[in-house]
């Protein structure tokens, strides 16, 4: 038998020798593949690093190859010396995912491939919200600075009729510029470019015709429900003196005294917006503009993969939603108003349970299930801000506080406190067990739960208490919630839910379930906790541990989770047939909101636009329920629409 085996291997090896660069692995015990490969994305480039197996013979060389996810984008290959452990590949296409493979080449052929994936992203970030307001022989330009730490300046190119007129420079500290010496009645195009040391950003354009002076500039005069609209007065129109105050009336009873006002209309209709400016000395000036608000633009967005155990969250302004696809290994940013996918961020591993959390500045934080424990911070524009290797799978949703700390719990029980802006480690502690959840109280106390217990830590990383009982907290997703002075933890193996005193770690009560693991507790303002059971039932338990209601109609909940509405109802989706969206009132009365007709496998979210959001197999969908998220307690997975898992 041995002779036959070695003969077969020799034949395969001989076949490989005849094709010198076909990258086929050699079936020989003398070909040793590399131990690890890491790919780090840059701007139009990627850096590939690898480590050989310890104690194995050095190869003749290393063969590095790469392919793009887009069939129209070319791949490539390069051979490097045997003492090389790092290669930077340039000339790549930004926003395209590449797979990089490293093979050891020996005299007998190539070893097996070891691969990693990354997506190059431009670091030459452009300005945004570029606007031009016409005046008399001049135009007032304004913009939002790019989200970057790199040094840059601005170049403003002015053209008319396709011909250049002049070019103006501006410092990075400026966000507006008055362009004078223009001709009334001539249409001008203004092009704003950020100039970096390593090249120019993409340009943004705005147009204005001097002489046609509008007193008010708005994002659009035709909006959708809950679409954020920015109102700004034209300083080239109001020229009677120094303006000391501004007052906006939006036409639906709401007002603002902000110089630049932002507003969302919750209902369709036609509105007249009135502006009053007050000059130094008391004189006033007025203007108005008509706004038309239409209904929702979409109810379903396809191409977003399958969310498993992680729900949909939103940017602070409510205009973008984020969802993690376990199947596509991507973070998707979707325009919550139009339903268009803004951008995708590809990773090398799946995210199963560890949903995203959005910081106050719009940065999205999430982890993946690769063995390195990759943890990402991605800006609101889809650029990687930083990436941290935590050393074990990240299956628990992170927590993000308003003072800029990110807490990540990994699958060997270690908790990391990271600086939200840089990813720098502030401190870490080690416990044990598979990660279940991490949450933060109003005073900054951090609570973690794993399959072996519960612990509380101070903001400085000092242990405050260990729970008096070794509760087995359910892994994946968010299995913790806070209501008042009680920490709620959903548990494995019919454990149901436990209530823990946040001050002492003493178990107040435990409410057992009937079938299996329990998931995603939510808490109302009275301390009632609702949770679901995998392949089991739905439960509502009051703050004293007594049953409020149990729904035993179906056993159709796998990683599902409630969201609590301001209308006092609890909403949830069914994983299996009949695939319904359900609501329950405070007494447990059950109502079918609608039939989805497809599988869901994640908690629902109530968005800032009074709609219920849920993930399907390959898409996300929204359904109007006519109420906002409850404002008390812990009303959905992640606590709020940003999924921060933090009350601070």
Characterise the protein shown here.
The chain has 648 residues and is mainly β. The protein has four domains: 117 residues, Immunoglobulins (Immunoglobulin-like, Sandwich), CATH 2.60.40.10; 81 residues, Sandwich (Immunoglobulin-like); 79 residues, Immunoglobulin-like (Sandwich); 325 residues, Methylamine Dehydrogenase, Chain H (7 Propeller), CATH 2.130.10.10. 2% of the residues lie in helices and 47% in strands. 44% of the residues are buried. The N terminus is likely disordered.
Task: Give keywords.
648 residues; mainly beta; Immunoglobulin-like; 4 domains; 5-stranded antiparallel sheet; 1 helix; 2% helix; 47% strand; globular; disordered N terminus
SSE inventory with pairings:
Elements: H1 2-17, E1 36-41, E2 45-51, E3 61-68, E4 76-80, E5 86-90, E6 98-106, E7 109-110, E8 114-118, E9 128-134, E10 138-144, E11 152-160, E12 163-170, E13 176-180, E14 188-196, E15 199-200, E16 204-208, E17 216-218, E18 222-224, E19 229-233, E20 243-249, E21 255-256, E22 260-263, E23 269-279, E24 284-294, E25 300-306, E26 313-314, E27 320-325, E28 330-335, E29 341-346, E30 357-358, E31 364-367, E32 374-378, E33 384-389, E34 399-400, E35 405-409, E36 414-419, E37 425-430, E38 435-440, E39 446-450, E40 453-457, E41 463-466, E42 480-483, E43 486-491, E44 496-501, E45 507-511, E46 518-523, E47 529-533, E48 538-541, E49 547-551, E50 563-564, E51 570-573, E52 580-584, E53 590-595, E54 605-606, E55 611-624
Parallel strand pairs: 18-24
Antiparallel strand pairs: 1-2, 2-5, 3-4, 3-6, 6-7, 6-8, 9-10, 10-13, 11-12, 11-14, 14-15, 14-16, 17-19, 19-22, 20-21, 20-23, 23-24, 25-55, 26-27, 27-28, 28-29, 30-31, 31-32, 32-33, 34-35, 35-36, 36-37, 38-39, 39-40, 40-41, 42-43, 43-44, 44-45, 46-47, 47-48, 48-49, 50-51, 51-52, 52-53, 54-55
């Amino acid at each position: 038998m041995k002779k036959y085996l070695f003969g077969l291997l020799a034949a395969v090896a001989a076949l490989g020798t005849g094709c010198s660069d076909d990258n086929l692995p050699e079936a020989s015990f003398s070909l040793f593949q590399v131990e690890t490969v890491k790919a780090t994305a840059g701007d139009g480039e990627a850096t590939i690093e690898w480590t050989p197996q310890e104690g194995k013979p050095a190869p003749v060389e290393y063969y590095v190859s790469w392919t793009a996810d887009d069939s129209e984008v070319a791949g490539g290959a390069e051979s490097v010396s045997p003492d090389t452990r790092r290669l930077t590949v340039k000339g790549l296409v930004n926003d395209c995912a590449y797979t990089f493979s490293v093979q050891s080449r020996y005299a007998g052929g190539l070893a097996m491939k070891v691969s990693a994936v990354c997506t190059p992203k431009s670091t030459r970030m452009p300005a945004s919200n570029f606007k031009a307001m016409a005046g008399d022989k001049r135009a007032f330009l304004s913009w939002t600075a790019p989200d970057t730490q790199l040094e840059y300046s601005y170049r403003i190119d002015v053209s008319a009729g396709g011909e250049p007129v002049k070019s103006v420079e501006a410092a990075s500290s400026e966000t507006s510029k008055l362009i004078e010496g223009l001709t009334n009645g001539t249409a001008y195009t203004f092009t704003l470019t950020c100039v970096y040391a390593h090249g120019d950003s993409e340009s943004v354009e705005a147009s204005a015709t001097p002489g046609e002076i509008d007193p008010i500039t708005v994002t659009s005069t035709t909006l959708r429900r809950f679409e954020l609209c920015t109102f700004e007065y034209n300083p080239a129109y109001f020229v009677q003196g120094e303006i000391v105050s501004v007052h906006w009336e939006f036409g639906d009873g709401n007002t603002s005294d902000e110089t630049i006002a932002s507003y969302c209309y919750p209902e369709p209709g036609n509105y007249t917006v009135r502006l009053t400016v007050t000059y130094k000395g008391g004189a006033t000036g007025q203007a108005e503009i008509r706004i038309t608000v239409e209904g929702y633009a979409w109810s379903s967005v396809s191409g977003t993969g399958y969310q498993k155990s992680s729900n949909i969250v939103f940017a602070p302004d409510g205009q973008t939603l984020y969802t993690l696809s376990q199947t596509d290994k991507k973070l998707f940013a979707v325009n919550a108003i139009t339903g268009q996918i803004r951008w995708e961020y590809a990773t090398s591993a799946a995210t199963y349970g560890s949903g995203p959390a959005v910081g106050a500045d719009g940065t999205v934080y999430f982890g993946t299930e690769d063995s390195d424990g990759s943890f990402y911070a991605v800006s609101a524009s889809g650029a990687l801000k930083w990436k941290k290797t935590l050393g074990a799978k990240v299956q628990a949703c992170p927590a993000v506080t308003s003072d800029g700390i990110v807490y990540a719990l990994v699958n060997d029980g270690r908790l990391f406190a990271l600086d939200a802006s840089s990813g720098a480690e502030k401190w870490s502690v080690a416990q044990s067990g598979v990660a279940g959840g991490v949450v933060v109280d109003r005073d900054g106390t951090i609570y973690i739960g794993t399959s072996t217990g519960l612990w509380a830590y101070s903001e400085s990383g000092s242990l405050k208490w260990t729970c008096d009982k070794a509760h087995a907290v359910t892994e994946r997703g968010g299995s913790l919630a806070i209501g008042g002075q009680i920490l709620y933890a959903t548990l494995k193996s019919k454990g149901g839910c436990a209530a823990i005193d946040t001050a002492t770690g003493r178990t107040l009560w435990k409410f057992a379930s009937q079938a299996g693991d329990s998931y995603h507790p939510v808490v109302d303002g009275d301390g009632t906790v609702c949770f679901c059971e995998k392949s089991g039932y739905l439960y509502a338990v009051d703050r004293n541990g007594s049953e409020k209601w149990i729904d035993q109609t179906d056993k159709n909940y796998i990683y599902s989770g409630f969201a609590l509405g301001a209308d006092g109802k609890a909403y949830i989706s069914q994983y299996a047939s009949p695939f319904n969206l359900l609501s329950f009132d405070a007494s447990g009365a059950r109502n079918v909101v609608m039939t989805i007709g497809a599988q869901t496998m994640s908690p629902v979210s109530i968005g800032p636009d009074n709609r219920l959001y849920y993930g399907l197999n390959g898409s996300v969908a929204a359904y109007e329920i006519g109420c906002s998220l409850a404002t008390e307690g812990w009303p959905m997975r992640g606590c709020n629409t940003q999924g921060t898992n933090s009350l601070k």
